[in-house]
Amino acid sequence: MFSHLYHFQSRCRLNPLALIGGLFILFFLLIVQYDPPLLHELRLKSFDFFLRSHPAPLSDTRIIIVDIDSESLEKIGQWPWPRKRIAELLKKINATGPVAVGLDIVFAEPDGSSPHLLGTLDYIKNAPPIVQDYLKNLPNYDFSLAQTLAQSPAPVVLGYVFTNTEKSTRPTSIFYSSQQVPKKSNIQLYGQNPLPFLYSFNGVDSSLQIFERTAQGIGFLNIIPDHDSIIRNLPLVVTYKDEIYPSFILTMLQASQKVDDMKLITDQNGVRSLQVGKYHIPTNMNGELIINFSGPSHTLPYISAHRVLSGQFEPALFQDAYVLIGTSAPGLFDLRAVPTDRVFPGVELHGHALNTILSQNYLHRPEWVKGAELLCICCISLLLLLILSRLRAAHGILLVLFLSFGIFSLSLWCLYAYNLLIDIVYPMTVTWLVFTIVTFYNFIAGEKKIRRLRSTFSHYLAPEVVKELLKKQDDLILDGEERELTILFSDIRRFTSMAEKMSPDDLCAFLNEYLTPMTGAIMEERGTVDKFIGDAIMAFWNAPLNTPNHLVYACRCALTMLRELDELNRSWHKRGFPKIRIGVGMHCGVARVGNMGSQQRFDYTVIGDSVNLASRLEGLTRLYDVDILVSDAVYAVLQESNFFFRRIDRVRVVGKTTPVTLYQLMGLREEQTVDDLQELDAYYAALERYTTGAFTQAAESFLSLHEEYPGVYLYAFYAERCLRMEKNPPKQWNGIIDIQTKKNC
User: Fold this and answer.
1) Per the count of CB atoms within 10 A, which of 294, 337, 372, 534 is most buried?
2) Alpha carbon 105 to its chain's center
3) What ranges make up the beta strands (E) of 608-657?
4) Are 517 and 571 in contact (CB under 8 A)?
């Protein structure tokens, strides 16, 4: 129960990454609401890219640009042209039956080239009356143009420009100077008051009243660029002195359909749409149309004005078409920057806006899209915080690249399929920022983990193994797992009696001198030093890193420990210390390994029956007076190896019901002599008699071996056991001895 409560408490602890991620999401949502200029401009640039990659188709109703271009100025003369020539141009166009004609020109001053103005000159006042009357009756070019406007079979729409005394907008007209109130249009309001949402102006540059009275319509020509000076939207309605006025192309649509009014539809969030005859035009909250450009400049058909005046065109060119008259000549300053081109004639910009309406191919960015984008940002942030914390940086960047591609593809698909503008900048920004934050956090946490691992395992493992462990730390499990291990215990024989004769300082120096090479032998063979228990050493193999052939490393370590002990004994002998012996017990089996202990202090250690058995084997080395004892699990794996083993006994140790066969690791096969092998054969023959219950014959064989090899205590041990069992034979003999205490043996 308590363990479950502890794990529940651990899971409920506040994850620093979750806290950082949550604060970041809140902070980024505030940034989205503020919409900083840099990200706003990046979003506009992304929309520009989409528009360039997916140009809008041209409408079925043709839109023709009559261009006052450089060639026309060269052939006809510099601008401004006489109004009579503009009247001739209109007559040529109107004769072919267009739907409507729009002049992207403001006639703000009288025509200075008109002949009738000669009669108004000061030096003419002294001329004879007949001369004065003649001059005053010369043609009036302004009147000629006004008469042409009034008699035009197709509606002709003029333009004017609103200005702002505090910050004037750049006019699209060719020249301007007068200021008067333009003729109002009948705009019916449906919904909330739109004035707070519309662009407002304080001044106006309008055409002469003689033209405004005779033209079928007038509309403002203002084009308001974004902060980066690129034009993407066209205002369809603005306010001037608290009155609402329509744009140039909106007036052309009204005049072409011969409707008297327009409908402006609003709600609490601003302007929603405009209704002009059969055309329902969605807008943004400021009453602007998002222009769906069909390509770069000259995508719409152009014809030079001088060709129209000279009659070099097909009459069917203008039939049933919307005709826009304007200029692309660089010297007349009517060139703009748009998403599809950086040098774009202003008259064609009106043409593309008109094409957007006529083709009903509107770009949409409704208010609900912003909410959907915020939800997307939150989902992306949470998803990445959850996934990236579990991935390597290389895999994480692949995920982020894939997600970025998905965001880009989704936005592009929404544009292609539904003309819906979906922002990619904020979702991609949050994607890469979360990746950066998580990567940085993982880097800091990884560095902390590396320092902890290096500090922890440098006491247990060789430096080379620690380096390898740090490289493979993703495969490392420190919380505890079951795996096959080789466990080794070693202890000094009769150490207690030795310690009683030493001072504390001498004892400490002695242990340090002994434990240092023993620990070095374990580390050199890729073992993990678990702990020191006085003079005893506990070590294991195959954790924390997987170590193939860990039994081989452990056996080599045991033999190295004996060689190191021989070196120490020679050194101690010169200094007057007694010779010491150690016992090593080794077993291979499944055990649980991991960090264990209390919350305040814990160690990386192993527990389980396999550990207990290895400890028992080390204790049995004293019983048989052998240096290294291993279990049958070790022997089963290494019996065909280069290690040389001798079977010692089959016993059932304290606390175990399953018997284990004991083997002595005597060295390497290549080190064994012929005499050693002959001795082993004699020993196995005696052991066979003992195992089959022939205790008398076995005792004789062991006594004979002891006489021949008096230094081997094992033979005397078996001889004594056999004699004892000869006097008191067991009822059922299976060759297994229950080890409880030494006296039972």
Assistant:
1) 294
2) 52
3) 628-630, 643-652
4) no
| pLDDT for the residue numbered 645 | 97
Instruction: For residue 470, give the nearest of 495, 452, 488, 482 by alpha carbon.
Output: 452
Task: Quote the tokens at residue 533.
Answer: 């228990």
Stretch among 78-92, 226-240, 422-436 having the lowest mean pLDDT: 422-436
CA-angle at 740, arms to 734 and 744, nearest 5°: 70
Residue 586 tokens read as 């080794």
Structure tokens at 698: 């076995």
3-state secondary structure of 264: strand
* CB of 291 closer than 8 Å to CB of 225: no
What span, in angstroms and rounded, lies between the C-alpha atoms of 744 and 739?
7
Q: What is the mean pLDDT of residues 545-560?
A: 94
**Strand 481-492, strand 536-541: pairing:** antiparallel
Distance CA 217, CA 158 (A): 6
Q: Give the contacts of 184 (CB within 8 A, at least 6 positions apart).
A: 243, 245
φ/ψ of residue 483, rounded to 5: -155, 165
Round to whole Å and give the CA distance between 204 and 207: 10
Q: H/E element holding 606?
A: strand 602-607
Where does residue 176 rank: exposed (0-12), middle (13-18), buried (19+ CB within 10 A)? Answer: buried
Beta bridge partners of 485: 589
| DSSP-derived pairing of the beta strands 100-103 and 322-326 | parallel
Whole-angstrom distance, CA of residue 348 vs CA of residue 333? 14
Residue keyed to tokens 């989205």: 32
Instruction: Tell me: pLDDT of 11 over 70.
Output: no
Is residue 649 helix, strand or coil?
Answer: strand
**How far apart are the C-alpha atoms of 196 and 242, rounded to whole Å?**
10
- CA distances in angstroms from 112 to 74, 121, 169, 211, 235, listed in the order given: 20, 12, 26, 16, 33
d(CA 133, CA 125): 11
Rounded-to-integer distance, Cα 628 and Cα 565, Å: 13
Question: What sign does the CA torsion over 255, 258, 260, 265 have?
Answer: negative
Sequence-ordered list of residues with C-beta below 8 angstroms from that of 154, at least 6 positions apart, any chain:
93, 94, 97, 98, 99, 100, 101
Q: Which of 617, 679, 681 is nearest to 653 (CA)?
A: 617
> φ, ψ for residue 615 (rounded to 5)?
-65, -40
Closest C-alpha to 222, from 339, 106, 357, 340: 106
Instruction: Calculate helix-pair angle for 37-53, 425-457, nearest 10 degrees.
Output: 120
Residue reference for tokens 């002998």? 573
Joined together, the tokens standing for residue 525 give: 């063979």
- Work out whether strand 100-103 and strand 156-163 pair parallel, antiparallel, or are unpaired: parallel
Sign of CA pseudo-dihedral 197, 199, 202, 206:
negative
The residue ranking higher by pLDDT, 470 or 712, is: 712
Instruction: Say what the pTM is.
Output: 0.61
Tokens 């405004």: give the residue: 212
Among 623, 556, 613, smallest CA distance to 588 is for 613
Q: Where are the alpha helices (DSSP H) in 625-727?
A: 632-638, 674-692, 695-708, 713-727
Closest by CA to 62, choosing from 324, 362, 249, 320, is 320
- What secondary structure, in 3-state letters, does 451-507 show? HHHHHHHCCCCCHHHHHHHHHCHHHCCCCCEEEEEEEEEEEECCHHHHHHCCCHHHH
Q: Which helix (H) or strand (E) holds 85?
A: helix 83-94
Q: What tokens appear for 567 in the block?
A: 């070196």
Question: Any idea which residue has 């014959």 for tokens?
Answer: 697
The closest alpha carbon to 251, from 223, 284, 277, belongs to 277
pLDDT band at 478 (very low <50, low <70, confident <90, very high): low
DSSP structural state of residue 420: B
How many angstroms separate the CA atoms of 162 and 326, rounded? 18
Other Cβ atoms within 10 Å of 220 Cβ, number = 28
Residue keyed to tokens 């509107």: 362
* Length of the chain in terms of residues written: 745
